[in-house]
Amino acid sequence: MNPVKKPFRISFEKLSPEDYVSIRLEAGLSAKSVEAAAIGLKNSIHSVSVYQDAVLIGFGRIIGDGALFYQIVDIAVKPAWQGKGIGKEIMQQLMDYLERNTLPGAYVSLIADNPANRLYEKFGFKYTMPQSHGMYKKY
């Protein structure tokens, strides 16, 4: 896989809550409060941000317990940059982290919305059905 080329810069530093809320909205993901983001981002296991110059254009992170269970969340790319390999680069960086840091038997999950499921399949993710069914409850 070809890495994102300059003038793009990859950072592993955690985003500010304001930048997190902004990139999610600009990428078409659901709204989150700055207050919740401030708490949640502190608990990220690993974060990947992509910048063009000083402008944040993409983001993704891993959450979980750091040993048994991991979840890939918040894959967000601004619309003008979608289809240019930014999402793939974010996923590759997250997968590289998992390859270096997970123990045998670790379970990595994610929830994919169409058409993003095609991206995740390229990284070896499979549907859980019929063996199990994903479920959620939202507050």
TrEMBL record:
Keywords annotated in UniProt: Transferase
Entry keyword Transferase: yes
Xref: Pfam families: Acetyltransf_1 (PF00583)
UniProt cross-references to InterPro entries, sorted A to Z: Acetyltransferase_Butenolide, Acyl_CoA_acyltransferase, GNAT_dom
GO molecular function: acyltransferase activity, transferring groups other than amino-acyl groups
Domain N-acetyltransferase as annotated: residue spans: 10-139
Protein name (record): N-acetyltransferase
Species in which this protein is naturally found: Mesobacillus zeae
